[in-house]
Amino acid sequence: MITLRPPVASTPVEIPEGAHRRPRRVSAAVVPSQPASVSHLRRIARREARRWLLSADTEEALQLVVSELAGNVVLHSGSPYIALLLSVEAGVLFVKVRDGGRWGENSSCATREDDDCFGRGLVLVDAVAARLTVVRTATGSEVVAEIDLPTAAVPGRRAAEQGLAASI
After folding, report:
1. Is this structure's pTM higher than 0.85?
2. Which residues have C-beta within 8 Å of that of residue 163, sequence separation ≥ 6?
3. What is the pLDDT of residue 102?
4. Using one digit for the tens of pLDDT, what is the confidence trace for 7-29?
């Protein structure tokens, strides 16, 4: 019989309450690119945020990001699908939305000026995300929004941060 032992931390850290109950923190969904899919993806995001014990503020930011990015795919890409990947790594919530469309060609706003239809969704996402990356190619696009999560308490960290702030 093989027994796996968890690695032992070399320095003491406080484990956030409930962390030992957290399931694996990766979730993915692929849905048709249609208006009803946006609310479906938002419900998935809300469910995962609660299952992962994320704060109410993080849950709200996640739902906004998913709504805006999925809505952009439906309205502007002409893609037949929306792929959503949510994951948490090293204190960051990653929201990745992929599509297989070509932006702007199938848009209902193609004949209007940019300020009428374009730009506000990503501006909202950029306002709540710590980092935002948009990659568009001939075969589709991927948008990655990163939302920083509150860090777990580490002894000495708060004092070091306060000392740094006081010296600035």
Report:
1. no
2. none
3. 82
4. 444 444 454 555 544 446 899 99
